[in-house]
Amino acid sequence: MTTVFTLCSSNYLAQAKALGDSLLKHNPDYRFVIGLVDRLSDQVKPSYWEPHELIPVEDITIEGFDAMADDYNVVELNTAVKPFYIEHLYRRDPGVSEVIYLDPDILVFGSFKRIEETLKQYSIVLTPHICNFDDSLANVGHEIGALTMGLYNLGFIGTSRTETTFGFLDWWQKRLRYCCHYRPGSGVFVDQLWVNLAPLYFDGVYVEKDPGYNVCYWNRFERHLTQQNGRYLVNGNHDLVFYHFSAYNPDNPENVAGRGKMTAISMRECPDLEPIYNDYRNRLIENNYSSIRCLPYLLRRKRRTSKVSFKRVLRPMLSWLLEASPRAVQKYVRLRRSARSLRL
Q1: Based on the domain organization, do 332 and 270 belong to the same domain?
Q2: In the chain, pLDDT over 90 holds for what percent of residues?
Q3: Are 83 and 193 in contact (CB under 8 A)?
Q4: Interacting residues of 148 by C-beta distance below 8 A, sequence separation 6+
Q5: 11-40 residue pLDDT tens
Q6: 226 and 314 in one domain?
Q7: What CA–CA distance (Å, rounded) separates 202 from 164?
Q8: I want to staple 123 with a disulfide (CB 3.0 to 4.6 A). Which of 164, 200, 209, 289 is the partner?
Q9: Do 312 and 64 form a contact (C-beta atoms < 8 A)?
Q10: Helical pair 13-26 and 274-286, crossing angle rounded to 10 deg
């Protein structure tokens, strides 16, 4: 059995519901789970997310979770708990053979059968941000982004029930418990940058390069969207499997993407994307997006500091460093010395 899950706080439940509905339309035998990284507001009733399952983060066992909730902001915490949810979904049901994660701002447009078949041979499936280059300034910018924030987009990860997967999850958990901050350019970028190392450390990692998987603004230069007989095609001959609406704000439908310091990408620049974005916006409106997006984040405990220091990052890792190797003390000393030059 395949379980697909997403992670979000209460204000993203409209997106999570749209994702789950689209997934089951094309993969009716799957189970979809919403991992709520928040405390549920009494303004939202179970009928809202049904028929999908909702699991609040405090209902699964995460060692040190209180400290994580104190240290991380909402984005960081949502990404930090990802491997813990994957393990939980395997451990609670021995019948689950694959666990797949999707970001809540994704819509599914096709069957995941190919992913299932791949996971029969591999433990982990990843999708890269980009697969080709054209030497344009825009492409070079996306390459720099990939080198800064990760080769693979962790809006998707597929896993199968193997010893390799559980070893990977243990490795990932230990790092995300303390080092899952949003610090582009520092060597730390939430859960995503760590996974650059996964193909080096673990066998059975497959990189899915089909352009129909994880289409988004950052790979637009290599993927063109068209419609044919009621379905979307990428580059004319690849079925669109899922589209990632990262950085899209339904309140600003004139832009494909735009947040923070990034230069907004206008819909006028991407006329081929207008139908799919209008469809997505309508689904969110049907899910009462305007009210849901205003729900408060209820897990915040105290004001966090922005500085990532040795004390907050490296010292808590000492306990498992000491267990990892007879030379852990020496490693610890080297880390302590190098920490003086860290600027995260």
Answers
A1: no
A2: 76
A3: no
A4: 184, 185, 189
A5: 999 999 999 999 999 999 999 999 999 999
A6: no
A7: 7
A8: 164
A9: no
A10: 110
Between CA 161 and CA 340 the distance in angstroms is 40
The number of domains in the chain is: 2
- Residue 268: CB atoms within 10 A of its CB come to 10
Q: Are 222 and 211 in contact (CB under 8 A)?
A: yes
Longest dimension (CA), the chain: 63
Please name which of 58, 2, 85, 14 lies closest in space to residue 248, comparing C-alpha atoms. Answer: 14
191: phi > 0 → left, psi -120 to 50 → alpha, else beta; which?
alpha
* Same domain membership, residue 342 and residue 251: no
| Cα-based distances in Å from 124 to 99, 180, 262 | 10, 20, 31
Predicted pLDDT of residue 317: 55
Tokens at 177, concatenated:
């418990």
List pLDDT tens digits, range 104-151: 999 999 999 999 999 999 999 999 999 998 888 878 888 898 999 999
Predicted structure pTM score: 0.88
**244 and 310 inside one domain:** no
Residue 249: give its domain's CATH number.
Answer: 3.90.550.10
> Domain range holding 323?
306-344
pLDDT value for 231: 94
The more confident residue out of 329 and 59 is 59
Is 217 found in the same domain as 173?
yes
CA atoms within 13 A on the CB side of 307: 4
DSSP output for 181-230: -EETTTTEETBTGGGGGHHHH-S-EEE---TTEEE-GGGGGG--EEEETT
Say whether both 49 and 181 belong to one domain: yes
Secondary structure letter of residue 128 according to DSSP = B
**Joined tokens for residue 294:** 């205003």
Contacts of 307 (CB under 8 A, 6+ apart): none
Are both 207 and 182 inside the same structural domain?
Answer: yes
